[in-house]
Amino acid sequence: MTQPSKPLIVSLGDPAGVGPELIAAAWLTRERNALPPFAVVGGARLLADAAKLRGMSLSIEQVETLEDAREVFSRSLPVLGALDGPYRPGHPDEDGARLALASLEKATALAVASEAAALVTGPVAKARLAAVGFGFPGQTEYVAHACGIAAQDAVMMLAGPQLRTVPLTVHMALADVPGAITGELIQRRARVAHRALQQDFGIAAPRIAVAGLNPHAGEDGQMGSEEQQIIAPAIASLRASGIDATGPHPADALFAPHARGNYDVALCMYHDQALIPLKALDFDEGVNVTLGLPIIRTSPDHGTAFAIAGTGRASAGATVAAMRMAAGCATRRALHG
Q1: Alpha-carbon gap, residue 41 to 139, rounded angstroms
Q2: Among 24, 184, 214, 251, who pairs with 218 as Cys (CB 3.0-4.6 Å)?
């Protein structure tokens, strides 16, 4: 894999979760997985303690700049700055949430300032962040705001070796989903995904499969009218503009092995319709990518996993995948333009 010209910047995530130990574990696989140089914002003592509890021998060096990080990466995990806190796996608290937020803010600022090739964010607990004054639904919305991008133009894509999905609606009650589905939203999400697949993933002519909302994609209106009244007309408009969109497809068949080769991304109507198949197929390598930003941002597609933090049971696969995907997207975007 061609490496980006600048290091990646990584935020800690919640220090009571699995983020710190998985960052440490990822660095230890840097040669085997051809990871690009990266630095973590804060947590030198915390990372050392997390590695020790996992039985890993980890060398850490605090650095002042990302260029310093590139120089030490081959021998030590670079930690940028003096932010730190105690390591209490499985016991989240407000001090830990403040550390996670400070790390996220600094890492995002470095990415927005083009000092880093890409941003990789560790998993956080949304409720914990809200308790310390974080005013965004999640990290995606925060990063979009920091980039000056409207939240509706920052599109979540879940990506793994076997599947890519985009949820049209995200963190809302299932009962509210039908009312939130509009033709304009379908087209907006699809256009952002189309551009990103070209620019960041190197797919010249992306194929977008659009799922239906109802069983059997509505069965010609017998099981719901959203497909006929909203989804199909939006697909027709996308096709008229030159985007290869198909559907609405019955969601129960869209993710079967024989179907997945017919599209590059599936645009799904709600959160679980997109995340269940991705996690079923690619749980240990799933990556959350934010499309539509002026920076590259990825994150492992799993949560803080407080219940298993510090036990050594968590896999670093998704963290490694998030770093590799960030590097690949950054390299392709630089070549694209």
Answers
A1: 16
A2: 214
- DSSP assignment of 22-68 equals HHHHHHHTTTTTTPPPEEEES-HHHHHHHHHHTT----EEEESSHHH
* Fold classification of 155-290 (topology level): Isopropylmalate Dehydrogenase (3.40.718)
Q: Could you tell me which residues are beta bridge partners of residue 249?
A: 211
* Model confidence, pTM: 0.94
Cis amide prior to 248 (ω within 30 degrees): yes
Is 1.20.1740.10 the CATH classification of the domain at 1-149+293-337?
no
Encoded tokens for 311: 């036990």
**Distances 131 to 59, 92, 95, 170 between C-alpha atoms, Å:** 34, 12, 11, 21
* Phi, psi torsion values for 314, nearest 5 degrees: -75, 140
Domain ranges of the chain: 1-149+293-337, 155-290
Q: How confident is the model over 269-311, as pLDDT tens digits?
A: 999 999 999 999 999 999 999 999 999 999 999 999 999 999 9
Are the folds of 1-149+293-337 and 155-290 the same?
Answer: yes
Q: What's the Cα-to-Cα distance from 329 to each of 184, 261, 318, rounded to whole Å?
A: 27, 22, 16
Type of residue found at 273: Q
- Which residue(s) pair with 80 in the sheet? 41, 63
